Each structure stands twice: as structure tokens, then as C-alpha cells.
Amino acid sequence: MKTLKRLLAFALPYWKAYAGALIMVLGVTGLQLMQPMLARWIVDGIYANHQWSLLLWGSLAMTGTAAASAVFGYLQRYWMSWAGQKVIYDIRNRLYQHLQQLSFSFYDKAQTGQLMSRVTADVEQTRMFLSNQMIQIVAAGVRFLATFCLMLSLDWRLTLVAMIPVPVLVWRAEIYAMVIRPMFWSIQQQLAVLTATLQENVTGQRVVKAFARKDFEIKKFERDNLDLMEKNVNTLRASAFNDSLMTLLTESSLAIILLWGGREVMRGALTVGTLVAFNTLIVQMLQQVRMLGMWISGATRTIAAGDRIFEILDTKAEVSDKPGAKPIPKIQGRVTFENVSFAYDGEHMVLEDINLDVKPGETIAILGGTGSGKSTLINLIPRFYDVTKGRILIDGHDIRDVTLDSLRRQIGVVTQETFLFSASLRDNIAYGKPEASDAEIRRAAEAAHIDEFIDSLPDGYNTIIGERGVGLSGGQKQRVAIARALLMDARILILDESTSSVDVETEMKIQEAFNKLLADRTAFIIAQRLSTVRNADRIIVLDKGRIVEEGTHEELLARGGIYTAIYNLQFKGQEENELRNESATAEGGEK
Amino acid sequence: MGFHMHGPGGGRLDMDDISFKDVNFKHLGRTKEFLLPFWWQLSLAMVLVVAIAALGLEGPVIIGKVVDLIQLSDTTNQQLYSLVALYFGVQVLIAVLRYAQTYIMSWTGQKILYSMRKKLFVHLQDLGLDFYDKLQAGRIMSRVTNDVEAINQLLSGGSLSLLSDVVTIFGIITVMLRMNSRLALVTFITVPLLFLTIYSLQGKMTRAYHKTRRRLADITANLQESISGMRIIQAFSREDLNAERFSNTNEQNFRAQMEAARLRAIFFPLVDVIGTLGVALVYYYGGIRMSLGDTLVSVGTITVFVNYTNRFFWPVRNLVEVWDLILQAAVSSERVFEILDTKPNVVDKPGAIDLGRVQGHVEFKNVTFGYDPSLPVLHNVNIEAKPDETIALVGPTGAGKSSIINLLCRFYDVQSGQILVDGHDIRDVTIQSLRQNLGIVLQDTVLFSGTIRENIRYGRLDATDEEVEEAAKIVGAHEFIMRQPEGYDTQVRERGSRLSVGQRQLLAFARALLANPRILILDEATSSVDAYTELQIQRALEKLLKGRTSIVIAHRLSTIRNADRIYVIDHGTVKEVGTHEELIAQNGLYKSLYEKQFAGEPEDYKAAPVVDMTEAKARLGGHSQPGTGVRVAMENSNSADH
């Protein structure tokens, strides 16, 4: 009920349309009830009494009420759709805005598919209820009562007799609703399973082929496919049985009327006209009962859908502006970690007791094994997560005291996973600064060495990329992402393994550009290349969430610790090669 | 697309604005191949539909008789009872038949749906990678799910209701004409009105429905992208602008929905009015006939006519919806058949033999190949790997290295020349048996949902748990797997449960190792892992490459150095062949590539001190390969000497 109330709160601003639609429904109901009464009047009043002069009037009245009912019906449908669509428009916007506020921690746990189904299927379910069913339930109730009263007033005994199948009808409807809901749910589940199997097969086709796993995959799909079919057939059989039974119950009411009413007419206790009217009325009334059942089960589905929607809306953003947070002034670039500890779950520390003071313009290279906390560390700076203990200061401001927007706008990030949007290259590069001029965009593209490629495209910067456009290679995507970060012209840059899928030559060029850019900016780089690491002002080595070594390349080499080990095993070869080349050239020269 | 890149990933059929003018009904007819196996179920269902429609017409006739009967003075209760019993009997029969029909039809419909999906899926397994390059995964999926469903909607739902409607309409017309042709003709005055209404609104409604679907798809696409790109959105503080854009999309959907709603709000009440007009005409003209003393018109006749007129208008309302279904199904079937009509680019030759377990001798003889035959990407390539040798393919991006691998796996067939494995042309053996001898590790590691264990076992389905763990241990993945919350039974989910790129690669190694292929193909990642993982991977690699023929697209210095032979590929030809030392001495393309790729900073490499490797190894927590350790130590001493 609470959920329903909250859903209705969304409808409240549009109460006028709802009220209007409700009035129209009542109007339509009244007019529809008049039809059988007019028919009765024509049969009993005109035909039986040979009042032929009234015949035209009777027919016109019938057409007239229908026309009036159509006008009412139009308004009712229109207002109802309008209100329902308006409400859903609001809910969608609210959901979207809320989703944008939810923190990284939420998206770590959430599955895209599930979220999507909430914001699409659940919202749609809610719309059906709020635009149609809600009023129909009221209207069906009113219609049922009105028809019932009218029938009672015509002949109360016939009415009661005709109602005999109704309890059975209601009882069956309830059972059906109970049985069918879990069935529908399991179909949805199975469909999700099948889709997932299919998706993996399609995206992993290379691996499937490479391992010659065709038969295995077909068997897997076959199993899910068969299961889905069986679930569907069972559900459809249940619903087919129910439909037939419900129709039969309605018809049995009609049979009862004919039987009982027919005898009454023969006894002269009932007019033929009344019987004809009853004939129509009972069908109408039972229709209301069935629809009521349908809509009430719709309402319970809506409540379930509403629950899922509100679950999202009620999720608090873990990272948000403090009340009274002020924008951070233009950042100079000093970044200080003070005793920072962090745990994703609040328990298992991923970072422990990090102390780091980075001066404006410094470049910090971060090294460490998988799971040592490198990415976590840099994620804390733009407040993608909030520290568990300690604090992070930028230019002396605790980053939790300033607005998120002002903070993030002044930090450029290139993440490990390159995500681009289905939009033009221009829009993608200017993603963080939509007002950027063409010249700025071009400069950023040049710095990221993607400009030549873009110029080679027939539509240049207007080329649409992504799902609906041109596909880019991994390296091209990465360079666009770099251009996107560079355009922000931020004082603080964060680069997470940002050149991993760029080919070597390009990487070197980007590196050059970086070196220029990094000169007067504070930068945090998770790097694999010796040159980047060497050029850094300071290198920190993380192990199990702690800073274990810190210093310049030379200092760390002199210490002979982990850094030296990594250096020797990985980077040494890069130097070794230099050496050999030199000697080879030298030898060649001697010859 | 004239420029060098992947295709746009969809064709005309995937355009959002596919106009219904372009709808090709030819393909809809082809769906009969799926219907034919169920011909008798379908025929039975049709017979039942006709029977139900016909019986349905009987009901009002009986009611009319009852009405007339009870007005007569000499009617006995018995006559009334038997008529009502007849009525009820007909209704029971209808209920039973309807249940049978719905059940048969939904069973058949689901069977058809099932077989369509199955056929598509099996066909997809045979399609070459060229197909997957052209059409995006999302589009392929939507064809197997949504389009198949749309066809089914028409086949099992729409077509029967259409049949039932047509039977009902013609049945009503016939019965009415036979009962009283004058009254019937007067009632039919409303039919032109009805057609006028349908004619004027039908097209608009179809277009409006189509538009609402598109607008709703826009919303879904926007949401999908926003949710998957949320981290970027927040990192770049785009929330406000995005909210505005979403709101716009939302608004457009609202408009489209209201346009459709308005048309519906006009159409249905209008049909109702016309229906009631028909009823009023029945009462009016029937009354006039009665007033003129026409004995053929009774109150009973009028009751029947009124009932029929009402029923006449019900199917008409459905027609608009059914028409929409037909259009959808026509578009969908064209999409489905586009896939089914795509021929696999590589197929088993008739009489292809089973290759069996090979020694691992691989030979490319004068191989020429192009994805587009007129633009060869490989020219006259000759490569040889003897059993247990490791050969490295080196060259700039786009040189044709991946094409060589694609050909060996027979993802594509050569244009000229031949590829031999143990002396057999790979086109003479079954694809299955060829690939069973191959193990491939790709740059982008594909993991399937399921546990870590299941993912490793993908390499060999009958491997025991011990074997799986053994493989993981050998490649050095065991440790991090045990650190996962549920060890080997940890689910690898959408975001890979925080598995890093390096960890995923180690799992792929374990998978390949478990498969124990005679020929290993490795596409090394450029540099997507951190230094630690790099180290782990190098160790794992050595294990992996041992004791089998390996062909490696190499980026790591260690792999290149250890290779028995290096093939330098450029512009689709083998430019240089030899060992690392030989090639460096040649001072050619290899050397310049090598310099670019592995150039460190030129200054003071000599400053590097000799380190105690024992300590380093201990710190790294690994038992590093003796080979690696020795080499490093040697290199250290070398450099120190200089």
C-alpha cells in the first residue's frame, strides 16, 4: 500500500486530468447503460404497443447516446493517456537523474541488464497502471455496481439467479492469478538466461570456434531453448484453460437468464424487452468482473514494479555534496593523502594508511601488482569513492567539503576501460566541455595523435561512432579517450594504463605529447612503460594496499627493493636491447 | 565504406527509419518452411478456428429463437428447456474447442519459435568471423530474440485471430442475408462508413505506432549507454547536460505516444458509434417492417441482428492491430532470413577426413589471401613451424599477422596456395578435427558466465577438478583464484568480479593449457598489464609454449628472443626470416621495428646496479623460472661490465 501511495504521489500533479477522465468514464458508463434500456423501450414500448411514430426517435436516441458516449470516450482515453504518459515522463526523468547521482560503488554491484529492466519494463508496467488500469478499476467497480442496481431494479430475482456463477468466477480468477504469476516470472527468468547464453556465444564466437566447441554451445543453447519452450507452453495452456472456463461461466449466466427469464415471460411475469435488456446487461456486468480481476492482478504487478523502482530511487548516493559544500577554487594542484585507508565493503582494507603529499606540477608514477590498490588510490582523488579513514586534501581543501561538480571538472581522467558514446567524434572529445570550440577540440585531438585519423574520415569530426556508427579499433578509442581528458585542460590528470592498446609508435608519440602536457600539471599515472616511470618526479610502489617504496627512479634503484626487482625483470630488457643495438652498430661500423 | 576500419555494424534492415513502403513481403512467405513440419497441427487449429467461429454464430440464433418462442402462447416449458440446453451445450462445445485450439496453437507456436531459434543458433555457429565482423552482437541477438518473437506473434496469434475474424465477418454476413436480406442490407449501410474510418486512420495509426516504438527504443538506447558509461559521465561531470538530453528524448517519446493515443482515442469510439448506428438501424428498419406487417421480422429476428451487428464490429477493431503485426513480421522475417541466407565462408569438403592428433608440423605454401578477394592482405606467404618449434610473427599493425592466424584456424580459406598441417591440406580435413588440435589465446580474453572452474574447463570438457587446478597452478593463476571469495567456484560475472586484465589472461592460459593442443596460437597483448602481472604471464608463457608447436604474434621481447624463428611481416609479405640475432645483424626492417618497440631511454643504463635476485624473487613471492633468473642475472652482469 505504501508503494501504491508513493506511485500515486507521482500522479497527484495531474489530478485534474485524472478527475476529468474519471468523470468521462462515469459518463460513458451511464450512456452505455442507457443502450439496453433504450432497446427495452423500443421492444416493449414501441414494438409491443405499436407506437411506430416513436420509432425514429428511439433509434435517434440510441445513435445520439452512442455519439455522446464517443465524445466522452475520446476525452477519457485522451486524458488518461496524457496523465499516464506525463507521470511516466516524470518518473523516467527522476530515475535518470537519480542514477546519475549514484556512486561508483552502486555500479560495481549493479548489473546493467537488471538496471535496464527496471528502468524500462518496470516503468512500462507502472505506466499501464497509472494511465489506464487505475481509472478502469474505479470505473469497472462503478459499472459493476450500476449494472447490478439497474438489473435489481428491473427484476431482482432474475438478477440474483443470474449471479450464481459469479462466486465461481471470482474464485477461479483468484486461483488463476496465483498460479500464473510465478509462471510468468519463471518465463522472464528463462528468457534472460537464454539471452545471456546467446550473448556470450555471439561475443565469444572466436573462442567458441577456436576451441571447436560448436556442439557444446549448441547443446547449452538447446537446453535453455527447450526449457523456455516448455515453460511457455505450460503457461499458455494454463491461460487457455482459464480463458475458456471464464467464457463458459459467463455464458452459463446467460443460459440461466434465458431459462429462468423465459419461464417468467411465459408466465407473463416478465416482459420480453426486459429479458432482451438483461441479455445485454449480464454480459456487460460479467465483463466488468473479469476485467476487474485482470486489472487487480495488474495492480499487484505494478506494486512489485513500483517496489523495484523505489528501491533505486531510495538508494542513497554514497558520495554526494555535503550540505553547504562550496565549489573548490581554481585548483593549483597540490594533492595530499593523510592517513588514508579505504575498503570497498567497509571491512577489508584495500588501502591502508596512505600518506602522500604531491606538489603542484609533480608527476607521480604508481607501480604495484594486481590488487595492490593502484586503481583504488587514483579513484579516491575525484571522489569516485570516499575514503574510509583519513582524508584527502586538494590545495588544502578536504575534497569532501567541496562540490563534486567543481572538483571533477578540474580533474582529467583516462580510465582503463575506454568507454565512448554513440555520438560524433566531436561530441565525444568535447564530452567534458561541451562548449569547447572547434580549435580546442582539434588541439586535443592533435595532442592525442588521433587528428590524422579523424581527418581521413569522410565526415571528419562529425563521424558518428559506436553502436549506430563507425567502429573504432581499441587504439583509436583509447586515443579519443585521451583527447577527451586533455580537452578538460585540468590541473590534475589521472591516467590509468591509458595507452595499453595503442601500437608502439603511436604510444611514443602520445608519450611525447604527455611529457609536454604533464610539465606544469599534477599527474598520477599507472604506467607500464619504463620511459613514463623514469620521467616521473616520484615513483610510488604499492603492495597490499600500502606504499612500500617511494622516491625517484635513481633513489629507488639504489635501494635495491621491489622496484629494482621489477625494473630488472621487466624494464631491463628494454635497456639491454639499446645496449646490443649500440654494440651491433658499432661492430657494423668497424667492419 | 571506403575507408579503413570496421564496418558500421548493421545494414539497411537495422536502420531506425525503415519505412513501411520498403517492406518486402516475400520473406514473410518463406517462413512457411518453419510451418510445414507442423502442417497437421496447423490445419487442425484452423479447422477448429472455423468451427468455433461458426458455432459462435449459432449462439445469437438460439437466443433469437428463445425470444420468439416465449412470446408464443402454446410453448411448453420442455421446448424452452431443450433450447436453452442446446444453447448451453453449444457454449460448452465452444469452450472445449477453444481450449483445444488455443492449446494446439500455442504449443505449435512455441515449437515453431523454438525451431526458428535453434536453426538460427546452429547456423550462427557455422557462420564465419567475417559475418561477426560485419554485424554487431546486439543486432545479431535482437534477430534471434525479438525478430523471431515478432514472426511468432503473427503466426500463432495474429494469423489465427485474422482467420477467425474473417470467418466471423463472412459468417455474420451470410447468416444475416439468409435470415432477412432486406434488414441485412440496411444494416450494411454502415459498412462503407466503417471502411472510410479505417481507410483514413489506418495508415496514420500504423505510422504512429511505428514512431512510438522508435522513440521508446531511443529512450532504451540512451539509458543503456548512460548506465554502461556512468563512470565516464561522473568523471567528466556531465550529469546536467545528460539529464537535459535524456529529458529531450523522453519528451519526444511523450509526443509520439500522445499522437498514437489521440488516434486510438478517435478510432475506437468512432467504430463504436458506427456499430451503434448499425444497431439503431436494425431497430428502426425492423420496427418499420413490423409496422408494415412483415411477418418475416420478429422481435427474435431483431435480437439476433442486434447481436450480430455488435459482433461484426469487434473483429474490425482487431484488424488495425493485426495489420501492424503483419508489417512487423514482414520486416522481422527479412532480418531473420538475411542471417539464414548468409553462407558460412568455410565448410567441410565432402569426404573431409578426421585429422586425428597431429605432430604439429605447420606449413604455409605460397599463401595469398584477401578478405575482399580483390584486395589481398597476404601475398605469397611461406611460413614453416616444425613440431615443437616456436615461431614469432612480428610486424607493424595491419601487416597481416592476424590474417595468418585466421587462416591457420580456418576462420577463412586461402585464395591460392595451401596450408598444411602434418602434410594435410587443412581444407581436406574436418574443421572440427583441425581446431581440436589448435589452442588459441587471444588478446582480449573472453570469459563466459559461470565459475572460474567452468571457464578453465572450457578447454577440455571432460577434465577433472584436479586437472583444472593443476593447469591453473602451472600458469600461476592458482594463487589469485584461491584469493577469490569462493575460490574456483567464484562466479565470473558481468564485470568479471574484479578480475584484472592480467588475471583474465592467466585464466585463458590455463584454459589453453588444459586443452593441451598440439599447436598453440597466441596473440600477445601489447602492454595491457602491469609489471607484476607481466612477470607472471611471462613465466606462464614459458610453460605453455613448451612441448608443442607455437605460433605467436609477439610483442614481448622474451617471446621474440626465445622463438626458433622470427617472421617479419610487412604489407602482407614475409620480409625477413631468422633468429633474433640473425635479424639484428641483417640491419633491416626487424631491427628498426625492434628499436622502436623496445627503445628505453638512451642515457645511463650503466648506472643500474647489480641486484640481488634472490631477494627480488623472494619479494615477488614467486619461484621464478631458473631460466629467467639466470638470464636476468647474466644480463645484469653484462651491463655492469660495460
Compute the number of structural domains of chain A: 3
Radius of gyration of chain B: 37 Å
- Using the 3D structure, state the CATH architecture of the largest domain in chain A: Up-down Bundle
Mean pLDDT across residues of chain B = 80
Biggest sheet statistics of chain B:
6 strands, mixed
Overall shape of chain A: it is elongated
What do you see in this structure?
The complex is a heterodimer of chains A (591) and B (642). Chain A has helices spanning 2-11, 15-47, 55-101, 104-109, 112-154, 156-162, 165-203, 205-210, 214-267, 272-314, 374-380, 404-408, 425-429, 438-447, 451-456, 474-487, 504-518, 530-535, 553-559, 562-590; strands at 335-343, 349-358, 363-368, 389-394, 397-398, 411-414, 492-496, 522-526, 538-543, 546-551. In chain A, strand 9 and strand 10 form a beta hairpin. In chain A, the strands form two sheets. A six-stranded mixed β-sheet of chain A has the order 6-7-8-3-9-10, sandwiched between helices. In chain A, strands 2-1-4-5 form a four-stranded antiparallel β-sheet, covered by helices on one side. Chain A contains 20 helices and ten strands. In chain A, helix 7 (165-203) packs parallel to helix 10. Chain A is α/β, with parallel strands linked by helices. Chain B has two domains: 12-340, ABC transporter transmembrane region fold, CATH 1.20.1560.10; 362-620, Rossmann fold, CATH 3.40.50. In chain B, helix 4 (77-126) packs antiparallel against helix 6 (137-179), helix 6 runs antiparallel to helix 11 (299-341) and helix 8 runs antiparallel to helix 10. In chain B, the strands form three sheets. In chain B, strands 6-9-10-3-11-12 form a six-stranded mixed β-sheet, sandwiched between helices. The longest helix of chain B has 53 residues, at 239-291. By secondary structure, chain B is of the alpha/beta class.
